[in-house]
Amino acid sequence: MNSKNPFFKTDSFKNATTTHEAVVIDYQDTMTVSGTINKSVLLLFLLVASAFATWNMAINGQNPTILMIGGAIAGLVFVLITTFKPQLSSYLSPAYAVAEGLFIGGLSAIFEVRYPGIVMQAVGGTFATFFACFMLYKYKVVTVNDKFRSIVIAVTAAIAIYYLCSWILTFFISYQPVHYGNSLISIGISLFVIVIAALNLFLDFDQIERGAAQRAPKYMEWYGAMGLMITLVWLYVEFLRLLSKLSSRK
Fold first, then answer.
1. Do 35 and 224 form a contact (C-beta atoms < 8 A)?
2. Which PANTHER family does the record cross-reference, listed alphabetically (predicted)?
């Protein structure tokens, strides 16, 4: 169960399962797919509810920047802690959903003001992609194996490094990253990143299913749900970026 998913890059599931195997008595106290789905729905509800706070601030002319930045930073901290301490996921995953909601709400409102209707399009694109990937995984059209995991994690890491380096360079030199703007190359990059984000959904589905099959402890349901939320947030943001580029060319 050595996953190549960025959030599941540690041996969290494997180690949790190994430790739990020696003490498990009640199978109701182990991870299940249905339990993970329920927790994913709860996290999504918390994220959306939290997003309304910064959304309303931005729509009503108030500046949500502090809450947005604070939410983004807090969300990153919660992810880093949970990655190495999955036992805390039952507490940190709801906190992550609330923090990330603050960021997403403000960001969405900013895009909506500039490009009316873009948020619903991005939401629709995100959930349509999620549903398509889920059906492809459920009916074994796409099979997750070691090669698939290795390729997806390698490309995902490359994207993260590129984004980070591009961002750092803008502080030191007059540099506009190629993915900025609305050029055809920039649009192509956004499409590529969306595809990679979608492929990460398959890793999430596989890891959740494998964790349940290995009877991981119950708290790993929160861990799996949090990993799924991370991918969905990434996918949504990338849809916002792509749609804004397309809208600006009109």
1. no
2. CONSERVED TRANSMEMBRANE PROTEIN-RELATED
